[in-house]
């Protein structure tokens, strides 16, 4: 219970990787803010699962690719818990297998709104509102470090927050706040790998991983819990790659 008494806000936490991170933080004692955009039933299930771990939890419906949605989540968190100690900018959209020549302006605008603009302002609000000695964590992708056919748009849209985290680490360091980025590889059972139609693509990626398997949401959640906890107090401005050695 190393996070007992802390409050954690995880964007996009009704399912997938965000859900796993939020419940891992809750298992270590943090009260949690479940953010979702559409699936209320899934968010309520996560809230119930968190409360079963003995912590307090709220759900907040908000599109965190837009500034008014981001403000809504932070306002609700402060109203419910008084302060915010941990922010995980997780919400994003995966869109791969698109050659650069096939990317449309609509594709570009959508991914940069969700994967770049949204996390940028989530981190801006975190910098304004998080308590001293807090923890800020962003979620990137190893497509930013391992170029592959078809990931030009997605990988580019995920680059910016890793850079911003390094800048924020400098700006917020005097307040004892750490800012780090997790760089996962492909996650089995999440994103596009919930669709059996992508099984062949998954096999091709597994062949690139030295440890012989894709990551799981629990793998990444464990890294997030470490960065959010007391043992990571001197780790800031870093990118922790969790991709089984693909990079």
From TrEMBL:
Keyword Protein biosynthesis: no
Similarity section: Belongs to the short-chain dehydrogenases/reductases (SDR) family.
Alphabetical list of Gene3D superfamilies matching this protein: NAD(P)-binding Rossmann-like Domain
Keywords: Oxidoreductase
Organism per entry: Kribbella koreensis
KW Lipid biosynthesis (keyword) present: no
Residues that span the membrane, as ranges: none
Name of the protein described by the UniProt record: SDR family oxidoreductase
